[in-house]
Amino acid sequence: MRRLEGKRAIVTGAGSGIGAAVAERFVREGARVAVADIDLEAAKRVAFGLGEGARSYRLDVTRPEEVEALVRGVLDEWGGLDVMVNNAGVGVAATIPETREEDWLRVMDVNLKGTFLGMKYAIPAIRDSGGGSVINMSSIAALVGIKDRAAYSAAKGGILALTRAAAIDHVEEGVRVNCIAPGTVDTPWIERITAGYEDPAAARAAMQARQPHGRFVTPEEIAAMAAYLASEEAESVVGACMVVDGGMTAR
């Protein structure tokens, strides 16, 4: 399918995992994509693999001047912006008493502030380009309790609430704002989050076992949802939280 033919998109955290899969799906469906990541070499590798439809950028989503410059750069190069995917995120495995304040602040900065800044600069650009779609990456941790994910759950819950507020504020401007709530996705994030456990392999197995459909969600499954939300097929989808979790929240 070529549902995104001619669209201009930014994907943050696109150097690996979900972000890389979203960038690949968007290019395959006809979009031009700014592959943005704090790891520039990772962004370059992804963009190079996608060919002429992609450009790589280094981006720290917690720095407003960098987010504003990225949006401005896309406007200068491609003449507009149609889709913004706020995907960059970090997590920490800890309960509230175990969470260090510096970890709390980092998780909030990257996940919640990063999403705020992405919308702050992308929404006016999308509006002025004739309208389009903002897709924020929340989590099922915003919807149900997940063990040892206190800070992460709070940040992802904030993204869900911020998505709904922005959706109502900007729907009349032609900007649709939605979020995706993935379950446990098979990305490098799993290795990072389980590294803090005494037995990382057992922690990984436990994460997989909690999936009712018996496996991790794939990055490509999240990318498919993002492509739908970015397309005209989703014109009546506004302020939604699209759950892709293998049944975890159905229990």
Automatic annotation (TrEMBL):
Record PANTHER family: DEHYDROGENASES, SHORT CHAIN, ESTRADIOL 17-BETA-DEHYDROGENASE 8-RELATED
Family in the record: Belongs to the short-chain dehydrogenases/reductases (SDR) family.
Keyword tRNA-binding: no
Lineage top rank: taxon: Bacteria
Top-rank EC class of the record's enzyme: oxidoreductase
A GO term, aspect molecular function: glucose 1-dehydrogenase [NAD(P)+] activity
InterPro entries linked: NAD(P)-bd_dom_sf, Sc_DH/Rdtase_CS, SDR_fam
Alphabetically ordered keywords of this record: Oxidoreductase
Protein name: Glucose 1-dehydrogenase
EC assignment: 1.1.1.47
Phylogenetic classification of the source organism: Bacteria, Bacillati, Actinomycetota, Rubrobacteria, Rubrobacterales
NCBIfam families: PRK07231.1
Name of a matching Pfam family: adh_short_C2
